[in-house]
């Protein structure tokens, strides 16, 4: 009886897996470009994707001059955060979350600073030395600097 | 069953930590921002689980995390943790986590220091890092061991028991000593390596029962042990591979009139891990080969032994959307790879053959109610009792060797059984 129940559950799950192989329609925003932004005092203009991943993965903690990197992110469920992870880091948002949790709960690293809105992101990155974050291109002004990803 | 004192203590610590953070804000509101920027962080989690086991025969019962075979199942599965980390300098971090875990007879819910160490990064460049950690660090083994007691980081409520033993767990968790670590990042991937020279934790009853078969008057003694892991991650973690291993040494300090002598126990596991992460699904597999050596106890109940166990699991995770996730896993455990069906063991000891293996088929669902609240449910169909807790199922605890004229123990466990589990977790 129980074995049959298991078989049944497995069948259902496999069916769902097959159905799910169809490409995911992303619920993110269209026609919006996201840019990596840093505090105006940061001297560099370009960064490699690897280094950007290491920074947002909370593994690279200092700029080349030794000053601390301060990472700002929007909540996991924000469309802009998801777009940023996919387009600029080329990873999925859930991977960032797992990477952070592995650091936070083993004591080997720390979580990024969480901001609740793009406006807060803009203000915090513009006023915090060593800050890095991301914004929609339309929301970027002179008080902040764009970092190009190579 | 509720260990109220320990929960109360955790709350006290939590409040204390919050007060420490908030203290300065009473004096000057802008200080809190400064503190946060200077790298003081507090995180934590708590969870409540329910387990229920059933089998075909009412006379036989298998218990998992408490009296799960009882009519109402068991609520004795609870995890509480709070951690603080402080980074006063860019290359210096202090971290500590307090943990209280209750899971049947093996974990009674006292508060212990899960980890507490000083982390100094000696060398750091854009592509390389090298450093040292001093204190109690999590044992760098496999994919999930470092955060195995944090529900949000696990693929299921109960980790694959063939490899992540919960019945003999403490010496596998975290150890006291020195850890060296290094990282190298490049176009073709990231390599992370950790190596520890440490003293594992062996002071609890479940470890003693795991090592000796039952409780004895003396105490286990921790001895210098080695743990290491090398991980290779490609394309930002799309592919992940790891090789990890350990050489755990445990001694024994006999009491007066102890039936046992100063014996030794060596546990040397070697693990291979692989994972592929796509947008909707992840595939994970881990394989373990464990060498176990026990000698010089000079007792019929704890004979010299030398054997090799083997385990593996294959696991698929599917994400329907950010809220719902399903897991399917097949997990296999063999206590002795030369006696996979346990026949030789049964002939030699009179204990059941099915206590030497376990094959577990698991299906589960995860529901992220909010980013910080999660609920899970899962079902395990298990053939074999290889990883069932000896303390929760005390059939053989009192009788180390069953007499040949009475080969059937009084409270037998059932070979084929079902395990249901539900868990609610909160994080901050």
From TrEMBL, chain A:
This is PBP domain-containing protein. SUPFAM superfamilies: Periplasmic binding protein-like II. It comes from Nitrosomonas communis.
UniProtKB/TrEMBL annotation, chain B:
This is Phosphate-selective porin O and P. It comes from Nitrosomonas communis. The lineage of its organism: Bacteria, Pseudomonadati, Pseudomonadota, Betaproteobacteria, Nitrosomonadales.
């Amino acid at each position: 009886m129980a074995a049959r129940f298991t078989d049944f559950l497995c069948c259902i799950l496999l069916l769902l897996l097959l159905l799910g192989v169809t490409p995911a329609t992303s619920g993110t925003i269209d026609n919006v470009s996201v840019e990596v932004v840093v505090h105006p005092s940061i001297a560099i203009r370009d960064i490699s994707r690897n280094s950007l991943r290491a920074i947002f993965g909370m593994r690279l903690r200092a700029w080349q001059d030794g000053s601390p990197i301060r990472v700002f992110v929007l909540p996991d469920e924000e469309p802009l955060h998801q777009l940023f992870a996919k387009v600029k880091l080329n990873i999925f948002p859930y991977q960032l979350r797992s990477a952070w949790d592995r650091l936070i709960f083993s004591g080997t690293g720390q979580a990024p600073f969480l901001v609740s809105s793009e406006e807060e992101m803009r203000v915090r990155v513009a006023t915090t030395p060593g800050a890095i974050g991301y914004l929609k291109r339309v929301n970027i002004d002179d008080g902040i600097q764009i970092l190009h990803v190579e | 069953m509720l260990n109220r004192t320990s929960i109360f203590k955790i709350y006290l610590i939590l409040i204390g930590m919050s007060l420490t953070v908030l203290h300065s804000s009473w004096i000057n509101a802008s200080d809190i921002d400064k503190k946060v920027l200077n790298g003081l962080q507090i995180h934590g989690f708590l969870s409540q689980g329910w387990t229920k086991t059933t089998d075909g025969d009412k006379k036989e019962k298998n218990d998992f995390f408490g009296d799960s075979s009882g009519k109402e199942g068991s609520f004795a599965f609870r995890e509480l943790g709070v951690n603080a980390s402080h980074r006063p300098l860019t290359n210096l971090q202090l971290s500590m986590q307090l943990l209280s875990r209750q899971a049947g007879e093996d974990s009674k819910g006292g508060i212990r220091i899960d980890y507490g160490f000083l982390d100094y990064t000696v060398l750091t460049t854009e592509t390389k890092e090298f450093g040292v950690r001093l204190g109690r660090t999590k044992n760098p083994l496999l994919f999930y061991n470092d955060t195995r007691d944090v529900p949000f980081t696990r693929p299921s409520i109960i980790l694959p028991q063939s490899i992540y033993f919960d019945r003999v767990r403490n010496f596998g968790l975290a150890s006291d000593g020195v850890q060296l670590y290094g990282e190298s990042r490049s176009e073709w991937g990231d390599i992370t390596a950790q190596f520890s020279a440490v003293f594992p934790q062996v002071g609890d009853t479940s470890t003693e029962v795991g090592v000796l078969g039952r409780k004895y008057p003396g105490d286990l003694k921790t001895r210098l042990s080695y743990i290491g892991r090398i991980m290779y991650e490609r394309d930002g973690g799309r592919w992940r591979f790891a090789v990890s291993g350990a050489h755990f040494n445990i001694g024994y300090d006999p009491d007066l009139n102890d039936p046992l002598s100063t014996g030794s126990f060596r546990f040397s596991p070697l693990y291979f891990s692989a994972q592929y992460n796509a947008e909707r699904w992840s595939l994970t597999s881990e394989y373990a080969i464990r060498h176990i050596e026990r000698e010089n106890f000079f007792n019929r109940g704890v004979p010299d032994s030398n054997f090799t166990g083997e385990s593996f699991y294959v696991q698929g995770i599917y994400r329907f959307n950010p809220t719902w996730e399903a897991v399917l896993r097949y997990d296999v455990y063999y206590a002795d790879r030369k006696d996979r069906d346990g026949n030789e063991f049964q002939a030699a000891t009179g204990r059941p053959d099915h206590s030497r293996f376990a094959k577990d088929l698991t299906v589960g669902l995860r529901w992220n109610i909010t980013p910080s609240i999660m609920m899970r449910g899962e079902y395990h169909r298990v053939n074999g009792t290889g990883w069932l807790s000896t303390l929760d199922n005390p059939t053989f605890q009192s009788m180390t060797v069953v007499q040949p004229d009475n080969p059937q123990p009084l409270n037998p466990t059932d070979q084929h059984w079902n395990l249901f589990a539900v868990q609610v977790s909160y994080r901050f």
